[in-house]
Structure formats: structure tokens, C-alpha cells
TrEMBL record:
Residues 371-391 have a biased composition (Basic and acidic residues). The keyword Transferase applies. The keyword Cell division does not apply. This is Succinate--mesaconate CoA-transferase. It holds the Pfam family CoA_transf_3. Residues 346-391 are annotated as: Disordered. GO terms for molecular function: CoA-transferase activity.
Length: 391
């Protein structure tokens, strides 16, 4: 039993943002039915694969964000399939889709139509630029991906080295952060319905989400009138708060308050720096020279030596590779690497676990991602049995 085991979600999403949102709901115990277009989610065939893509049902991309869901294949161009979908809507709690604005209406399956079949349905959309129902703009209807959202929302302009080009973040935050916010919106709507009996439309746009994600840039622009830009790994108002090269890699040090700064200087055997630059404004004013002083010290340490010297006194950590993450006992103790079956391969694979931890209804991946149309009979029941017999 999960915290959301009383909820059924109809998941019309594909690629990343929508599936990640519904994956969170599935980890929390919701019964998530992934309704796939003919041929399935376009990322089923995306690598990586364990061995042979011809034998494996899907790659790591699909597996990682569709675990624990059921799958049925429907073609909304077919009247019978639309009827099947509407029959599921009657008993569902939540519908989630990430089509372009107007797509569901084209099939006669928009929010207003679905409320005729289930008046308290919670209908949620994830789009690049939001839905006209919550604020109409001339961008709606345009396609969007993580790269587009990061570019428009200021993430790329503030990411990267000062002398380098605008840079996207490694993970697709335009998708993942939007998906997480959408999940929060859905859960808020569920709570509202528990109190009032009313369903509603939940809308989260990727561009809007990136404005929220770059919150520091927004208030800096407002307060100073200057457009923030790239600063590498440094922070505009904190120092030292940066990555430093070591003898065998890189490590980060966050010693920006006065106590941590004094501790860092003591470990470095440079009490003179603590005495000469005791306050934040002084350290910020001389940050370039101080950074070189710290960098000269860190280059003489290995990552392990540096962290051992600072542990318990100054916040510091190595910049880890994914290989090092897989070797970290903390990660395994916290169940953040979860083995699941990979259909078509002779070994299990590991995917990222759920970081939400609860004492009574702990979220967890509830099995592998589904095969295409694997759960038709389970989801559609007697109707699916009849169709199979007719075929």
C-alpha cells in the first residue's frame, strides 16, 4: 500500500516530463495506466541497451521513467478506442497529458468533454508554454523541449564559464523540474477535491518552470538592474563557494560564513587570511586573490585528503563520477539504486530510486516498465477479452 494507492491515473504522456511526473505518482502507489499511441511511446527504442536492442523490449531511457506502470495501446483516431478511453475516464481520478495545446480537443477528448463523463476528474497538462485556460499567449501551440525551456528561461545564460558559451545543465531540468512541479499541483488538486468534491485543471509550462528555477537571476535583475550571466562554479554573493582542483580531481568547498571561513583558514594554516578578511563583503571584494590562495592549497591535496581534513569543520565534498556514486555506501543504504528486470536481457539493470522517504508509506519503484499493451486485458477487462476473441 502506497500513500496514493486509492488513485488511478490515466497517463497519456511520452518522452520525459510527463512520464517522470506520473512515475512519481506510481512510486507513491498510484495505479498508473500508460495509454500509448500506436507503436508506443517514441522513446521505447532509445538507447542505452544492455546487450541487443533487437531482443530487448525498450532501452534505459524508457525504463527509468516508466517503471511500475501498466500499458495499453489506443489509437484516438479510432472511435472504438476513444470510447475505451472514455470508459476509463469514468472511473479514473487523474488524467495527465503532454501534447501540444489543442491536440486532445482535436479528438473530442478535451478537459471539458472529460468532465461530462467524470465531473470531478483532475486533468493535468505539461506543455512548453502552458495552456490557454490558465493564461493565453502567442507561444502556445509551439513545440518545446528541455533545451528550448532552458534557453528561454535563463538557465543557459547563467550556466557555464564566464568566457564560455551559454550552457545547458547536464540533466534535463526543463523536463524534470516541470514534472515535479506538476506532480505537486496534482496532489494539491487531490487535496482540494477531498475537501470540496471539485475537480480542476492543473497546468504547468516548461518556460514558466524555468523562470521559477532561475529564481536567483530574477531577484538579482530586479534588485540591481543588471542581467546576471555565467560565473562558472562560483556564487555571486557567497565566497568561498566553489569547485577547486585537487591532485586527483575536483572538490567543492562551501565556507562562506564567518565561522566556516575561520575553520578553513585554520586547516590551511593561514590564520592571516582569517584575520585580514573576516567578513563576507571583504572576502567578496578580494575573491579572485583569495580563490588562488585556496586553489594553491587544494592542488596539493587528493580529494580524500582534502575531505578528511575538512570533515566536521567545513562543508566539502568530492565531485563524483557516476562510477563513484555506484560505489558510495550512502547511496545503497538510502535505496537510491534499484534493480529491475530488463525484458530481453539476461540481467537486471539499476535505475535511480525515489528520494522521497516516508516512515509508513515509503515510495519505491514498483517493478519494471511495461511492455507495449501488456495490460490490455487487465485494464479493459471483459471488453478486451471480447475483442481478442473477435480477432
Amino acid at each position: 500500500m502506497g500513500a496514493l494507492s486509492n488513485l488511478r491515473v490515466l497517463d497519456l504522456t511520452q518522452v520525459l516530463a510527463g512520464p517522470y511526473c506520473t512515475m512519481l505518482l506510481a512510486d507513491l502507489g498510484a495505479d498508473v495506466v500508460k495509454i500509448e499511441r500506436p507503436g508506443g511511446d517514441m522513446i521505447r527504442s532509445n538507447p542505452p541497451f544492455v546487450d541487443d536492442p533487437e531482443e530487448e523490449a525498450y532501452g534505459g531511457y524508457f525504463q527509468s521513467v516508466n517503471r511500475g506502470k501498466k500499458s495499453i495501446e489506443l489509437n484516438f483516431r479510432e472511435e472504438e478506442d476513444r470510447e475505451d478511453f472514455l470508459s476509463l475516464v469514468e472511473e479514473a481520478d487523474i488524467v495527465v497529458e503532454n501534447y501540444r495545446s489543442g491536440t486532445m480537443e482535436k479528438y473530442g477528448l478535451g478537459y471539458e468533454t472529460l468532465t461530462e463523463y467524470n465531473e470531478d476528474i483532475i486533468y493535468s497538462s505539461i506543455r512548453g508554454f502552458g495552456d490557454p485556460r490558465t493564461g493565453e499567449t502567442d507561444r502556445q501551440g509551439q513545440p518545446s523541449f528541455d533545451l528550448i525551456a532552458q534557453a528561454l528561461g535563463g538557465v543557459m545564460e547563467t550556466t557555464g564559464q564566464p568566457d564560455g558559451p551559454p550552457t545547458k545543465t547536464g540533466p534535463g531540468v526543463g523536463d524534470l523540474f516541470t514534472a515535479t512541479l506538476n506532480c505537486i499541483g496534482i496532489l494539491a488538486a487531490v487535496n482540494h477535491r477531498e475537501q470540496t468534491g471539485e475537480g480542476q485543471y492543473v497546468d504547468t509550462g516548461m518556460y514558466d518552470s524555468m523562470i521559477s528555477f532561475t529564481e536567483r537571476a530574477i531577484y538579482q535583475q530586479s534588485y540591481t538592474g543588471d542581467a546576471p550571466t555565467r560565473r562558472g562554479n562560483s556564487h555571486p554573493t557567497l565566497f568561498p563557494y566553489n569547485a577547486f582542483e585537487t591532485d586527483d580531481g575536483y572538490a567543492v568547498i562551501a565556507a562562506f560564513n564567518n565561522n566556516h571561513w575561520a575553520e578553513l583558514c585554520d586547516v590551511m594554516d593561514r590564520e592571516d587570511l582569517a584575520e585580514d578578511y573576516p567578513t563576507t563583503p571583504e572576502r567578496l571584494e578580494h575573491r579572485d586573490a583569495l580563490r588562488e590562495e585556496i586553489a594553491e592549497w587544494t592542488r596539493a591535496q587528493t580529494n580524500d585528503e582534502l575531505v578528511d581534513k575538512l570533515e566536521g569543520r567545513v562543508p566539502a565534498a568530492p565531485v563524483q563520477t557516476t562510477e563513484e556514486i555506484f560505489d558510495d555506501p550512502h547511496v545503497h543504504t538510502r535505496d537510491m539504486l534499484v534493480p529491475v528486470e530488463q525484458p530481453g536481457a539476461d540481467t537486471d539493470v539499476e535505475i535511480a530510486g525515489n528520494p522521497i522517504k516516508m516512515t509508513e508509506t515509503n515510495p519505491k519503484p514498483r517493478g519494471r516498465a511495461p511492455l507495449l499493451d501488456e495490460h490490455r486485458e487487465e485494464v479493459l477487462g471483459e471488453k478486451a477479452d471480447t475483442e481478442t476473441a473477435d480477432d
